[in-house]
Design a protein that fits this description.
- With 152 residues, this protein is of the alpha+beta class.
- The chain folds into two domains: 92 residues, no CATH class; 47 residues.
- A six-stranded antiparallel beta sheet has the order 3-2-1-4-5-6.
- Helix 1 crosses helix 3.
- The termini are far apart.
């Protein structure tokens, strides 16, 4: 038995899994609600109702569209995952473009290990007597890599 809910905050809930309405409409572009719809609930083989500003309105079951929504939960999960991947890739591309537009000296500076990392490496070597290969050399390799990539 599956459960479909539309909640007026733009969320769809299917079997305790929440989806944004915009993701839902990728698969089901014909899904429509009126402005006064607060909630739609469909529990397969049990009940279906809408709550609007006038109260609750019971509707007939079975509901073919609702059954289709519930049946396609895996497709919704996939669409949601793809949207997250696409969004992440878009952010990476924007950062790349922003970085490319920085002046050379700023791009070089941004590649260096943070000061905190340098301080920790020095502390671990000098105070804690960690071997160079486990502290300072690691940070120095990063620094040399930046110097090679961005020569002065």
């Amino acid at each position: 038995m599956g459960i479909f809910e539309y909640i007026s905050n733009g969320k769809i809930k299917i079997n305790d899994r929440h989806f944004d309405l915009e993701i839902f409409k990728i698969l089901f572009p014909d899904f429509q609600v009126t402005f006064d719809t607060r909630k739609i609930v469909y529990i397969q083989d049990e009940c279906r109702f809408i709550i609007n500003q006038n109260g609750q309105v019971d509707l007939p079951i079975p509901w073919e569209e609702g059954d289709c929504y519930i049946k396609n939960i895996n497709n919704l999960i996939y669409a949601e995952e793809q949207d997250i991947i696409d969004s992440s890739e878009c952010k990476k591309e924007i950062e790349k473009i922003q970085n490319e537009n920085l002046p050379y000296i700023e791009r070089r500076k941004k590649e260096y290990p943070p000061i905190e990392e340098l301080i920790v490496a020095l502390w671990e070597h000098v105070v804690e007597n960690k071997p160079k290969k486990d502290s300072i050399n690691i940070v120095q390799e990063k620094r040399l890599s930046v110097k090679k990539k961005f020569p002065k």
